[in-house]
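Anyone up for a design puzzle?
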């Protein structure tokens, strides 16, 4: 019986540099596309979380108004949910509504205005949004249709 192993054509050992570069490029393209996709999804999730937090703050402000008799002023701000305001109008009854002043998903404190610019009978809660700047198009407001 002949040794057939020696008769097989010699196989290449390892990969060439060009093959390695091609594989790395393909992996880079796949990772880049994945990061683009998931980065967009994460940004959308933060916007949704900011909107949900605004709705939660609206509930806390309604509870505050029920006890205090009015919403906190712009100067009292959302801090009135954490500490009893010492400026007028002082709440007639006060209960701590939050442990700290709320921050949005980008770790920026929500802005608060009462009365609001659009409707003087109510307040406005605003997140600066992804660009972290108040007064820009990406702001998330309690007066937006969510």
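Challenge accepted. My sequence:
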């Amino acid at each position: 019986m002949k040794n057939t192993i020696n008769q097989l054509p010699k196989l290449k050992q390892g990969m060439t540099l060009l093959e390695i570069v091609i594989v790395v490029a393909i992996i880079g393209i796949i990772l880049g596309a994945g990061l683009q996709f998931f980065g967009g999804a994460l940004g959308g999730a933060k916007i949704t979380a900011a909107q949900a937090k605004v709705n939660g703050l609206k509930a806390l402000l309604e509870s505050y108004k029920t006890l205090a008799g009015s919403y906190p002023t712009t100067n009292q701000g959302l801090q009135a949910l954490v500490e009893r305001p010492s400026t007028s109008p002082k709440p007639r009854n006060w209960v701590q509504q939050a442990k700290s002043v709320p921050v949005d998903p980008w770790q920026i404190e929500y802005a608060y205005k009462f009365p609001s610019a659009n409707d003087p009978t109510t307040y406005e809660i605003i997140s600066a949004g992804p660009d972290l700047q108040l007064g820009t198009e990406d702001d998330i407001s309690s007066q937006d249709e969510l």
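A detail worth pointing out: The longest strand covers residues 124-127.
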